[in-house]
Design a protein that fits this description.
globular; 9 strands; 355 residues; alpha/beta; disordered C terminus
Length: 355
């Protein structure tokens, strides 16, 4: 199928820097877009061509309505639109505007998984955001919390973090309790100040409308009419996670974020987040959103770094697990002859193999 689209005034931002937005549409929708001096020629499957036509029409409609997303924001919106046929550029812009009520920056999904995450937070009372660093798990949750409070859906925001970081203990740090705790909660403060005016944030912190506290302070409380976020949930123990999840009160919403590849607990297998993923998946009213390295919105190097570490972990874990299985089989007495001995030798060989 072929079609020709008119080049209207001020359409150039839709093309993107070095036509990156056109290339995105070509790759994702399976079409070919030729930019001529008088028109844009689109060729491809019927569905892909119609979706390109809709994107151009929506962009023109938004432009006439006075909506002018900058290039990075527009590219992020298009990534979401081409990934899901149910989402249009116009509907996404309208949803972003609604979510950004009273917020200094727009709450804008930059990937399909981020869009699903925002929708899950709107539709569910408890959401888990699990994935690597830089995927916007915490930032988007804080943005949704600020928007919910501005819309008077909740009366307060509670931001929580376990005070466990790379083997350090609070008792060995200098200063008062608040001074000891603040460094662990700094990422939450950073998100708040980025989304709202600093003076307003300071006033809400002073009045406890926004409460930032370590996880240990949650025990025994019932949190009503609140938007609660627990960050770095991979560093909770099983007992701490259960304690936190059972604090949820009436008209409250909880978002739990974490990265199971960065567990700082002495025994990573005891992570409360890992256990919760296994126990609560499928429970009605709880939604799990899993992020991948393609969702990373920090510097492009961060995505490559995450992939490099994941590749290393895959190379290490598979041989070790195979070795453990073979050694366990030998220890359990599943054979004492030559086969068993060779299995043990193979396990030893795998362990000695340099990575």
């Amino acid at each position: 199928m072929k079609t020709t689209l008119e080049i209207t005034p001020n359409l150039e931002p839709l093309f993107g820097t070095r036509d990156e937005n056109l290339k995105l549409m070509e790759d994702a929708l399976g079409v070919r877009i030729d930019l001529r001096s008088d028109a844009v020629h689109v060729q491809g499957g019927e569905d892909g061509v119609h979706r390109v036509e809709r994107i151009f029409a929506d962009f023109e409609s938004l432009r006439r309505a006075g909506v002018h997303p900058y290039n990075g924001e527009l590219h992020a919106m298009l990534k979401v639109v081409v990934a899901d046929p149910k989402i249009t550029l116009k509907s996404l812009a309208e949803t972003t505007k609604q979510r950004s009520t009273g917020i200094k920056r727009g709450v804008q999904a930059r990937s399909a998984n981020q869009q699903r995450y925002l929708e899950a937070i709107e539709q569910n009372d408890m959401v888990f955001g699990v994935g690597p660093a830089g995927t916007g798990k915490t930032y988007l949750a804080v943005a949704m919390a600020v928007a919910a409070m501005n819309a008077k859906k909740v009366s307060r925001i509670i931001l929580v973090r376990p005070a466990v970081e790379a083997g350090e203990r609070l008792g060995f740090l200098p200063g008062s309790l608040q001074e000891k705790v603040d460094p662990y909660l700094r990422p939450l403060y950073d998100a708040l100040y980025d989304l709202a005016e600093p003076e307003r944030v300071d006033k809400m912190l002073e009045k406890n409308v926004i409460e930032v506290a370590p996880l240990a302070f949650m025990r025994g409380r019932t949190l009503n009419d609140a938007f609660i976020i627990m960050d770095e949930a991979q560093n909770t123990t099983s007992e701490q996670m259960k304690m936190f999840l059972t604090r949820l009160g009436n008209n409250s919403k909880a978002v739990i974020t974490g990265d199971i590849t960065q567990i700082d607990l002495p025994n990573p297998k005891k992570s409360g987040l890992v256990e919760a993923i296994n126990l609560l998946d499928g429970v009605e009213g709880i939604t799990f959103c899993h992020f991948e390295d393609v969702d990373i919105v920090r510097h492009t190097l961060v995505q490559r770094i995450i992939r490099a570490y994941e590749q290393k972990n895959l190379q290490q874990e598979l041989p070790l697990e195979l070795g453990d299985a073979l050694e366990g089989q030998h220890a359990a007495g599943h054979g004492t002859g030559p086969v068993s001995q060779s299995g043990s030798a193979l396990a030893a060989g795998i362990r000695r193999k340099p990575q």
